[in-house]
Amino acid sequence: MRVLLRSDASTGSGVGHLVRNLALAEAARARGWEVALLGAVDAPLGRRLVDAAGLTVLPARDLDPATVRALGTDVLHVDHYEVHGDLRGHGPLVSSMEDGVFGRRPADVVVDSTLGAEHVARPDDGSGTVLLGVAYAPLRDSVRAARRATRPAAGRSVAPGVLVVMGGTDAFGVGAAAARVAELAGAAGVRVVATGAAADRVRAQAPGAEVLGPQDDLPALAATADVVLSAAGTSVWELACIGAPTALVAVTENQRTGYERAVRAGVAVGLGPVDAVRSLAKGPVAVLRDLLADPARRDALRSAGRALVDGLGADRVLDAWWAGSGRPVVVARPASVADADVLLRWRNDPATRASSRDQDPVPRAAHLRWLDGVLAAPDRVLLVVERTGVPVGTVRFDREDASLWEVSITLAPEARGRGLAEQVLAAAEATWRAAAGTAPAVLACVRPGNTASARLFEAAGYRRRDRSAPDGLDAFVKQGR
Length: 481
What we know:
CATH superfamily of the largest domain: Glycogen Phosphorylase B
Strand order of the largest sheet: 3-2-1-4-5-6-7
Helix content: 25-40%
CATH topology of the largest domain: Rossmann fold
Number of domains: 3
Mean pLDDT: 91
Number of helices: 18
Distance between the termini: 39 Å
Largest sheet: 7 strands, parallel
Structural class: alpha/beta
CATH class of the largest domain: Alpha Beta
Low-confidence stretches: none
Number of strands: 20
Radius of gyration: 25 Å
C-alpha cells in the first residue's frame, strides 16, 4: 500500500493536523506501507518532527483529478480545513479527517475523532465508511510510550506544579496568560513550552515561570507533570491517553466542541472562555486552584482519560483503509516452511516463553524438525494470522480426541498492546472450524497467574473448568455446537 497524507504546519496555524498525520504515518510504516506527506511544513517544530520521522515531503499543490492520478497512491488522506470538493473517483481511496463541521467533505473513509462524534447526526453526503469518536484519534508511538512511563502520584507535591502547553506554536498567544493564571492559582512551579515571541511574552507576563523552549517529545514531558494546562486541540487526546491531569482552554472556535465534551466526560477541567484566561479573571484562577488542591480529583482525571483513550486510533483508521480496498483485515492461513524463521522468533521471545509450557529457548534445527512434523500431522493445524497482509500471530490446534482439540496462541511481540489477540483468535477459530466442523469443543490451557490469557479466552466464550489440566495449568473450554 502507498499512502499520501495531505496537511500543512505553520507558525500561524499550528502543527495539530501534521501530528495526526504523523501518527498515521508511523502506523502505516510499521505495516510495511510506503508513506509520503503532501503539504507545506513551515513551523520549526513541524520540520523537526518530519525530519525525525524520515518522511518524504512533496510540495503542496491543488488536489485536482490529474494531480491525484499522477501521484499513484492507494490511499489519499486529507487532514486540512481548506481543501474542498469531492476527490473521489480519480484513483486512490480517499480518506478525510474532520472535526465536526470543520474540514467536512465527502470521502470513501471519513474520520471524526472528536469525543462524542458518534452521538451527533452527520449529514449523509454519500461518504462510505464513517468512523466517529475518540476511539479513532490517531496518536503517535511517543504517546503510547509516555502512557507506559511511570507517572508521579497526584499527591506527590504539597503544591503541585503546572506545565503549560498551548499547542506546538502558541499561534494565538495564550501561553503567557495561562502561565500567569497558574502562578495566581498557587502552583509550586510553572513550566511553559514556548519559543520566540511567545517565550518573550511569558517572561514579561509570568516572570516566575520557567520557559522550556521547543520540545520535540511533549508526551514524555507531560507524563512527568502534576497538572497540564493545555489548549483544547488535538493534544487533549494525547494527554488523556497518557493520563495527565489536565485543565483546558478552548483557544479557537474549532476547539470548542472538543473542550466541552472532554470536560463533560471527566477527562479534563475547563478554565472557561479564552478571554477570561487572557484577562486573568477570577474564574479560571479559582478552577485551577481547586484542581491543584485536590489530589483525588487529579487521580480521577488521570483514570478517566486512560480509560477513554487507548491510543490505538491510528490502527483502526488503517484497518478501514485496507478494508476499503476490498481486502479482509484479519485472516488466518495455513503455515508453511516459509514461516519458519518468523515463527521461531516469536516462539523464543522472552514474554512468549514465560507463558509457555516449555520455557527454554528452542534451537533452530529443533524448530525446523518440529515444524516439519506439525505440517505433516493430520491431527494438528498450524495457522498464521495476518492483519492487513502483515503476520501478527500464530494459532495451533491439536486434536485430543474425536470431540476435543487444544488451542494455543502466540502473538507477535510487535503486535502486542494493540488489542489484536481477540481478533487473531477469532480469525483462527473461523478457519479451523471450516475444516473441523462445529461439533468439537476447544480446550485452552493457561499458566496460573496469566490473567491476560485468561481474560482473552473468557472473552472468546471459553469457560474455566473446575479441574486443572494434568500438568497443573488452568483449563478453559469452549463447547462446540
